[in-house]
Request: fold
Amino acid sequence: MKYHTIGSKLVLAFASCSLLITVISVVALTTWNNLDTHVNTILNSSVPTLNTSYQLENHSAHLQSFVTQIQASDSKAEHNSLKLSLNTEISTIKEVMTTLENNNDTSELRFGYVQLSLDIDILSTQLLKRIDNSRLINTTVEKLHWIHQDIIDELQPLRQELQWQLTRINGDGALQSNLNSISDEFSITQNIMDKETALYNQIEELLTTTHQTQINNTFQVIKYKLDEIESLSKKLYYHSSTIAYRQLLKDLSTIIRLGGDFQQTLNENVQLQNEIDATNSSIISQLALQHQQIKRMVGDADSTLKQVKRSTKETIAYSNRLLILCFSISICISFFLTIYFVKIRIVKRLNQLSDSLDSINKGEIDSKITVSGNDEIGQVGERLREFRAKMREMERTNALNLINNTLASIITCNLSGMIESVNPSAKKLFDNKCSPESNMVWDCFVSQNQEKLKAQFINGSDLHRTGSSTVTLFIQAKSKPEDIIYLRLSLNLFEQGHSQKVIITISDITEHIETKRILEMHVNEKTNSLTIANQELKGEINEHRRTEQNLRDTQTELIQAAKMAVVGQAMTSMAHELNQPLSAILTYLFSAKMAVDTQQYHALPSSLTKIEELGVRMAKIINNLRHFAKKHPADSPLVSVDLFDVTIQASAIVDNKAKQQHTVINNQLPKGLLALADGIQLEQIIINLLVNACDAVASEEEKVIDVLHFDFPNANHIIAIKDSGHGFKAEIIESLFTPFTTTKEVGLGLGLSISRSIIERFNGSILLASSLTGGAMIILELPKYDNK
Reply:
C-alpha cells in the first residue's frame, strides 16, 4: 500500500520528467536517420530513373520519325543513310538502358527494344526489295508506254490512208464496189486503236491495284482483250505497212501475257506491300507499348518520389507531434505537482468526502460518491460506499415485495439471464413452469424461442448498449395447446446493490399479431393481382409497338412499290426522250468529223456546244429519275421544302409521258412557298396526281393540266392539280381513297391511298373536287413554313 500514497506519486512524477527528456533525444535522432534514408532514395533511385525515361522517350520519338522517313524513301542511298541513323538510335537506346536497375519492368523494356530492332531490320529488308521491285515495274511500264505509242504511230498512217481512200471513192463512181471493203478495214483499224488504248488504260489502272485477286482477274480481262485485238489485226496483216505493228503487238503480248513476269512482279509487289504494312503495324504497336512501359516507369518513379515526400512529411509531423506532446507532458507534470496533488487530489477530495457524508446523513442514498483511489482518502471513500450498499439492500427487499404484489407479469434476472424473481402473475402465465429454480429465463419458453431470447443478453446487444430492448416470442395456450399466444417482452436494466439487473415486463399481443397477419395477406393478394395486370399491360404495349413498326415498314415498301410503278410507266417515254438527243449527238459528231476532214475548223465549236447541251439534258433526265426511284424511309424527319422546286422535279419525271400524249402541264406555283414536309415523299404525291391527270386527259382533244396555288390567309398552303378531263364518276368517288380501288385497266389502286397516308403524316390533307369546266381537281393542304 505504500506505493499508493500521495508521497510515492510525487516521486513518480519527477521520475517521469527525466524519462520524457530521454524520449525527446531518441525521437530527434530517429528523425534525422529517416531523413537521410529518404534523401538517398531520391538521389540513387528516382532521379536516375526519370532522366533515363526522358532519354528513352526522346530517342524513341527519333526512332519513329526515322521509320516514317525510311518508308517514304525511293532510293537505296537515302535508305542506307536512314538505316544507319536507325541503328545509331537503337545503339544509343541500348547504352541508356544499361543505367537502369534490373527488375521486371526494365527486363520487359529491354526485350521490347530488342524485338523493335529485329522488326526494323525486317522492314529495311522489305523496303529494299520494294525499291528493286518498283524499279522493275517502272521499267516495264515505260516499255509498255513506248510500245503503246509505237502501235498508235504505226496504225495512224494506215487509218489515214483508208480514210483518204473512202474520200476518193465517194468522189469517183467507178470505185464504189470497193467501198464496203475499205469501210470495214477503216472500222477495224479504228476499233483496234480504241481497244488498244482501252487496254493500255486498264494496264495503267492495274498499277494502283492493292489485291492479288484483282490483279489476276484484270490479267484475265487483258488476255481476252488482247485476243480480240490479235483477231482483228489478222484482217490487216496483208498490208505491208503492218510488219512493224505485228512485231510491236507480239512484244506487247509477251510482256502482258497471263502468268508472265509482269503479272508475277505486280503480285510480288502487292504481297511485299502487305508485308511492309504488317511490319510497320508491328513497329508502331511496339513503340506504343514501349511508350506505355516508359510512362509506367516514370509513374513508378514519380510514385516513389511522392511516397518519399509523404514519408518525410509524416516523419517530421510525427516527430513534431511527439516533441510537442513531450513538452506538453512536462508542463502538465509541473501543473500536476503544484495544482493537482495539492488542490484536487487532497483538498477537493476531502471536500467531496464531506459532501457525501452530509448526503447520506440526509437519507440521499442514490447520490454518487465520487471519491476513489487506493490512497488514504480513497480508502475512506470505499468504506462510505460499503455503508451506502447496505442501505440499498434494505430498499431492494422492499422493492421485491412491491413487484410480487403488482398485476403485470414481471421477471427479474441478472445480466447472464439467471432468474432471481418471478411475480405471481408471471407464474400463472407460464403455469408455474417459470421459477427461480428454472435457473435461466429462456428455459420458460419452447426451444424455437430460446436462441432469440438468449441473443438479448449477449455483449453488444441493444440491452447492453442502450439499457433496454424488446423481443416478441410465443407460447402454447393452456386451454387449447394448438393455439399460440404471442408475448412481447420489454427488457430494461436497473441498479440493485452493486450490480445491474434486468427487469422483464411481459405483454400479451396475440390479437394484434393476428390482425397484422390478416392485413398482410390482403395486401399480398392485391399486390399479386396488380403485378399480373401490369405484366399483361406491358405485353400488350410491346405487341402494339411491334405492330406499329411492321405497319411503318409495310408503308415504306408500298411507297417504294408505287414509285417503281411510276418509274416503269415512265421508262418507255424515257427511252424515246433519250433516243432523240443520242441521235442528235451522233449527227453532230459526224458533222464535226467532216469538218475536221475538210479542215473547216470554224464549224467545230457550234457542234461541240450542241453536244454538250444535249449531254446535260440527258444527265438531268436520268438524275431526276434516279433521285425519285431511290428508296426513302417512311418516317424520315420533316423539313422546310419549296413547293415550286418539288413540283418542277415531279414535272420533269412526268414530262416525257405528257409529251408523248401531247399534254401540256402548267406549273403556276410562285417560288418561295415553303411547307413543312418530306421533299421526296411530297414529290411522289405530286407525281402520282400528275400521272393520274395525264391518264384522265389521254382521250380528250384538249389535254391541259394546271398546278394552281390558292392564296388564303390561313395556316396552310392550298395547292390544286386540275385537268381538262371528264372528272370523277359518282359511283366510285366515295371509294377512291380505299386501297386497291382503281379505274385504270393497269394499276394497283394504291396511289391515292398512299398519298393520303403520306400527307396526313405532314399534318395536311388531300381533298377531291371538280373544276368549273367539269374536270377533276385534287386539292392538297400543307402546313406553312414561311415565318418559322
Remarks:
- The chain has a mean pLDDT of 75.
